[in-house]
Design the sequence.
């Protein structure tokens, strides 16, 4: 699957929030260390991804992509929950360059401690 879209940070929007809230079953998710991305197996031969870069003490989320036929089913939110839990377990600070990650964290207070003061300010938190 060619992944052409790239994320750059921008302020979260109402559209992003509404897409985050769609209910659905949790897909099987794994951290593919070789590809630097979390992958959700969607059961039909397709995957959704949350790409990242690692720096000492940080994980930088750069891009999230869900195949169009799976959008609005909570797949992206499941990927984010899994990825943030992994970051927390590893003691990594989160840098949400991807706007989908930024919107999710801005909405979920329980995840905001993973951000540096700079990113909390950038997202309008605190």
Sequence:
């Amino acid at each position: 699957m060619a992944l052409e879209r790239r994320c750059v940070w921008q302020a979260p929007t109402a559209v992003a929030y509404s897409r985050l809230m769609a209910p659905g079953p949790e897909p099987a998710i794994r951290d593919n260390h070789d590809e630097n991305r979390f992958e959700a197996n969607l059961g039909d031969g397709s995957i959704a991804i949350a790409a990242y870069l690692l720096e000492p003490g940080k994980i930088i989320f750069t891009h999230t992509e869900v195949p169009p036929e799976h959008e609005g089913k909570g797949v992206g939110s499941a990927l984010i929950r899994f990825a943030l839990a992994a970051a927390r377990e590893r003691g990594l600070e989160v840098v949400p360059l991807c706007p989908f990650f930024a919107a999710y964290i801005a909405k979920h207070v329980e995840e905001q401690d993973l951000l540096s003061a700079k990113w909390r300010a950038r997202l309008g938190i605190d």
In short: The first strand starts at residue 28 and ends at 32. Confidence is low (pLDDT under 50) at residues 1-22. The chain has one domain: 14-122. Strands lie at 28-32, 37-41, 47-55, 58-65, 93-96.
